[in-house]
Each structure stands twice: as structure tokens, then as C-alpha cells.
Design a protein that fits this description.
Structural class: alpha/beta
Mean pLDDT: 84
Order of helices and strands: HEHEHHEEHEHHHHHHH
Strand order of the largest sheet: 2-1-3-5-4
Strand content: 5-15%
């Protein structure tokens, strides 16, 4: 009986090591440089990670400014790096999800659209702060985490345009509503990418057409801003087919979420369930 107990305990230990190792390899957390120790721990608790077993990167306000200056206002950028992020790399085809906590100006869907422009796919993302912040700087940390996870840099121009897309969508959302702005930008981008449209006048016609279909009234300035953004997206050296698929996937995902908010059990979920049953079995042995 003692030998059997030893075998069970050894097996459990090995499984736990594998589980922790696998999880830590697939996750990167970024923390704002200006968080105090209590706020830093608050973020780690929210992300449900341990500092000792998780790759943690720090994001500074200088890094945020690199991509936001000239796009966002000084008030939106701020002088401190607070926004933090949890990024988990998923298997190909699993899609993307973005959750936000204490992010007040941009939404998870805005961040998701911008990530697709940066060719980020198949991931679970949480953007958060210990208190209310606009969230304009959140994308900087998220992209930094992806570079670390995938072992290669994201093109600098893609990062700049992705940030501009998020800011443009956020500003548009102040006038027409956040959900409406997100849907509008996504639908326009999908058409532009699918048809490989590059001429400014043709892009402008698409902007006006899609806005009309969605019953959204745009000013001349807003039409110009969206047209300029789409022109920049068309100039990026990106996989248009991959972007098309991700945009279509987001549309379907949002429809699915409205019907059913439960997540499908993942591989890690099944491992957790296996460990739970194993622990119950071990406890049963010790209680005999």
C-alpha cells in the first residue's frame, strides 16, 4: 500500500510539473512600469498567475509614446504606464478573445480589431488596470507580449497603424457609439482587404456605402479619417487572406457570444479535470 501511495504521489507531481510548465510557456504578462507593489500584485491576482512561474515584462510610458504620439492626445497618453495585459498563445484556429477590466475608453472589440491589423491571431487577451484608465496604451503591452511569445518582432509600421486604428475607432465611438464604431471599422476593413482596394476615391466610396448600410451618419472629417486609416492598412505587407478569415471569425464570434457565453472546454481544462479526479483518488487512498 505504501508503494502504491508513493506511485500516486509521484505521478501527481509529474503531472503538475507538466501542467505548470506548459501553461507558463504559453503565457506572458505585461505590467505598467508605474504600478506600485500593491497594484502590481492586484494585476497578477486578476490574471491568476504566479510571479515565480510566469514570464513578466514591463512597459514604460516611453514605449507607449512611441506608437501613440501624433495619433492620441496628450491627455489620452498620459505620463504614467499603468495598463497591464495577460496574453495566452492558443493553438492555430482557436480564434481570439479579449477581455477588459477598468478600461473605460477603448473596448475589447476595438483592441481585437487592431490586433488583427498587426497579424495577431489565436490568443486569449486580458487588458486591465487597477483603476479606471482610458486603455489607449494597452495595445503596446499586448503587442510586446506577443513578440515575446512568438519569438519574433512585429513590423513597426503594423504596430503604428494598429494603434492608430484603435484610436480612430475610439474617437469615432464618442460620436456614434462604441459598438457602432467597432462594427463600422471592421466591416469596412473586411471589404477593403477582400477586394484589395487601394485607390483613395474607391476606399472613400466603400466607407460611405458601409456607413449607409449600417444607418450611421458620418461627417466629412470622419469619412476622411477612416479613408486615411484604410489607405494605411492597404499599404502594409500583410497576409490579406489571414486578416479576412480573422475578421469573419470575429463577426461570427460576436454573434455566438450573444447566444451563448460559455467557453468550450480547452485542452488545459481537460488536464485540470484529470488532475482533480487524480487528487480525489489519492485522497480516497489516504482516507482508508
Amino acid at each position: 500500500m505504501k508503494k502504491l501511495k508513493f506511485i500516486y504521489i509521484t505521478l501527481l507531481s509529474l503531472l503538475l510539473v507538466v501542467f505548470v510548465s506548459y501553461g507558463s510557456q504559453q503565457v506572458v504578462v505585461t505590467l505598467g512600469n508605474d504600478l506600485n507593489q500593491q497594484q502590481r500584485q492586484q494585476m497578477l491576482d486578476l490574471f491568476r498567475v504566479e510571479e515565480e512561474t510566469t514570464r513578466i515584462l514591463v512597459v514604460t510610458n516611453e514605449e507607449e509614446r512611441r506608437y501613440l504620439e501624433g495619433v492620441a492626445t496628450e491627455r489620452q497618453i498620459g505620463t504614467r504606464a499603468i495598463s497591464s495585459a495577460f496574453v495566452e498563445n492558443l493553438q492555430q484556429g482557436e480564434g481570439m478573445s479579449v477581455e477588459t477590466y477598468n478600461i473605460t475608453w477603448v473596448t475589447g472589440e476595438m483592441i481585437m480589431n487592431a490586433l488583427i491589423t498587426a497579424e495577431v491571431t489565436d490568443a486569449k487577451v486580458i487588458a486591465a488596470a487597477p483603476f479606471d484608465v482610458s486603455g489607449t496604451a494597452a495595445l503596446t503591452g499586448i503587442l510586446k507580449a506577443f513578440e515575446e511569445l512568438r519569438g519574433k518582432p512585429i513590423d513597426e509600421e503594423q504596430k503604428r497603424v494598429a494603434n492608430e486604428e484603435m484610436i480612430t475607432t475610439g474617437e469615432l465611438g464618442e460620436d456614434i457609439g462604441k459598438d457602432e464604431a467597432t462594427t463600422l471599422i471592421r466591416e469596412i476593413k473586411q471589404i477593403i482587404v477582400e477586394r484589395r482596394i487601394q485607390e483613395p476615391e474607391e476606399i472613400r466610396r466603400v466607407v460611405i456605402e458601409i456607413a449607409g448600410q449600417l444607418n450611421i451618419q458620418l461627417s466629412e472629417e470622419q469619412v476622411g479619417n477612416i479613408t486615411n486609416l484604410m489607405r494605411q492598412i492597404t499599404k502594409l505587407n500583410i497576409n490579406t487572406e489571414a486578416i479576412k478569415q480573422q475578421l469573419e471569425g470575429i463577426g461570427q464570434q460576436l454573434r455566438d457570444i450573444s447566444r451563448d457565453n460559455q467557453e468550450v472546454q480547452s485542452l488545459l481544462g481537460r488536464i485540470i479535470e484529470m488532475l482533480r479526479k487524480l487528487i480525489e483518488s489519492i485522497l480516497g487512498i489516504f482516507s482508508r
